UniProtKB/TrEMBL annotation:
Residues 31-187 form the LNS2/PITP domain. It comes from the Eukaryota. This is LNS2/PITP domain-containing protein.
Length: 211
């Protein structure tokens, strides 16, 4: 992983700093994709605004669960339909989020390249956030060998997230949907009711792997 900054001129600011990161993954890496709003946060809209006023609006148990998944050898990717103008605030939220002394694992944060109004139009008016997400994940998959699907599991909060993950080949029994009450829905024989209960079964659902 390499972080870098680039300085450029813009219409509104003489000098603007753009921060980004480059992640190098092994071709055998197994990726776990997570939506942000409503999945890491409790809801789509309030999840974007509550951190601004110092309120914790995160789903209980999300950081210990994702940290345990990472410790078992998986790579986390955070995928959001938020606009590109929200990249800094999104990165800061994910980096700063901490529960019981445990933070989210580091991983690529992929958000929409569109501005805030096109993003809102796609998300709120057309209700097709999966258009961006499917295209984005397909682009990531194209970086890996054709006979290798790097996507192991997916976390989301909407039917559109399920559509997205199925479209890129994630098995239905490894797609987890959570609601604002923190109740987890999974098409699996294993009984998991929330992130905390899934954490107890992390070694069964996400068995350790070695690169």
């Amino acid at each position: 992983m390499v972080f870098f900054s680039s300085w450029c001129c813009s219409f509104l600011r003489k000098n603007a700093q753009v921060d980004a990161g480059i992640y190098l993954l092994h071709w055998r890496s197994k990726l776990v994709v997570s939506d942000v709003d409503g999945t890491i946060t409790k809801s789509d809209v309030l999840g974007q605004f509550m951190p601004w006023i110092g309120r914790d609006w995160s789903q209980a148990g999300v950081t210990p669960l994702f940290s345990a998944i990472k410790d078992n050898g998986y790579k986390l990717i955070f995928l959001s339909s938020r606009a590109i103008t929200q990249s800094s605030s999104t990165r800061k939220f994910l980096t700063d989020l901490e529960q019981n002394g445990v933070k989210l694992p580091d991983g690529p944060i992929v958000i929409s390249p569109d501005g805030i109004f096109p993003s809102l139009y796609r998300e709120v008016v057309r209700r097709l956030p999966q258009e961006f997400k499917i295209a984005c994940l397909q682009e990531i998959r194209s970086l890996f060998p054709r006979d290798c699907n790097p996507f192991y599991a997916g976390f989301g909060n909407r039917d559109t997230d399920v559509i997205t993950y199925l479209e890129v080949g994630i098995p239905k029994d490894r797609i987890f949907t959570i609601n604002p009450k923190g109740e987890l829905i999974a098409s699996t024989a294993v009984n998991v009711k929330c992130y905390l209960s899934l954490h107890k079964l992390v070694n069964e659902m996400f068995p350790g792997i070695c690169e």
